[in-house]
Known about the structure:
eight-stranded parallel sheet, 10 helices, about 40% helix, about 15% strand, alpha/beta, about 280 residues, disordered N terminus, binds 6-hydroxymethylpterin-diphosphate
Amino acid sequence: xxxxxxxSTMFWQTTRFRIDLDRPQVMGIVNVTPDSFSDxxxxxxxxxxxxxxxxxxxxxxxDLGGESTRPGSQPVSVEEELARVLPVLDAALKLGCPVSIxxxxxxxxxxxxxxxxxxxxxxxxxxxxGALDAVAAHPNCGICLMHMRGDPATMQQRPRYDDVxxxxxxxxxxxxxxxxxxGIASERIALDPGIGFGKSVEHNLDLLRRQRELLVLxxxxxxxxxxxxxxxxxxxxxxxxxxxxxxxxxLAAVLAGARIVRVHDVAATVDALKVWTxxxxxxx
Length: 284
Ligand code: HH2
């Protein structure tokens, strides 16, 4: 059942693009924040130049974020987030690729969709007041619903699950149904297990080992392992030295059925995926 339902939905509908997921897509991360866990400090022109660089390296889509969600981070105001993101969004929208905005605030969603953003990527799966309505009011923007236990300020304080895969699957299914009930077409939705968001190292590894079980939901999976602390725990490496581990995890996620990988190290990931594609290893 899962393979068939997935094969029939190999597209991700977004504002301007119907993304063909036959080939795994590389989503390049552009954090427009002073404090992101691995690449903070870019704003304005530097962030725009980074967008261009990631596309030159082979990114298929860009994900712009104006608020760090690293463990222990504190939220920023709507005004601050918009001041960071909007100038970069305006420039990125001219680059010819789908542009996603990583936000969990309804006001930010409304503002970026009004400017033409292609995708809303919400680590809070549209649970904030008004968030569901903000994307439902748009005829066709893409949406990524991510699982998170708790919130970034506290989520790594001893997360507990009876069965992490089942609990993540049930949550994503409930959020998918909430979207459908609001009139949002399923073809607009991608799902993400939320690596590192209220999960221990073992939880994250379990989610990857059993990731295929999420395909039963019938929507494309997006996976974000890039530079995350689980990779640091496994390799003993600092965040600046996790490129090889990140590429390995991205490949493993694709092998386990992910069709979009969210990464900082675009060139290395694109090359690795080309080798796997040549070998026929990247088909859903
Ligand atoms: N991870 C981060 C942020 N947004 N969105 C999705 N869909 N999936 C993820 O795994 C994910 C995400 C955290 O990574 P990063 O953007 O590099 O760091 P920060 O939140 O500190 O800016």
